[in-house]
Amino acid sequence: MPPKKRKAPAKLQAIAESPVKEDDEPQQAPQVEQNASADAVAQRLKEIDDEVAEHATDLLEAASKIANSIRDEGPIACLRIPKKVREMSVAEFFGLSAEEASGTVLT
């Protein structure tokens, strides 16, 4: 059995009873504050761009390390495959018919 909800109605009632403040005049920020906030936004965007560029270079470095390790270890892994299997054609390895091996069947 779920617990009884006792606090939610009290909170909703307090919100409903709170007076709503209506202003006839729209509030306008001074021009200086708008310029300052625009500068702050521009500065934050520049920081974000710098972080993205740094992260991208980190990813590229990691990818190049992985590619280099594959290049280094690839021939060694190929040598571990038995010579008979290495010398087989792809069609022979997968047991493909001549039609399938020629690529005329598109399934």
From TrEMBL:
Name of protein: Borealin N-terminal domain-containing protein
Top-rank taxon, per record: Eukaryota
Natural source organism: Chlamydomonas leiostraca
Pfam families given in the database record: Nbl1_Borealin_N
Domain Borealin N-terminal intervals: 44-94
Regions of compositional bias (Polar residues) in chain numbering: 28-37
Start and end residues of each stretch annotated as Disordered: 1-41
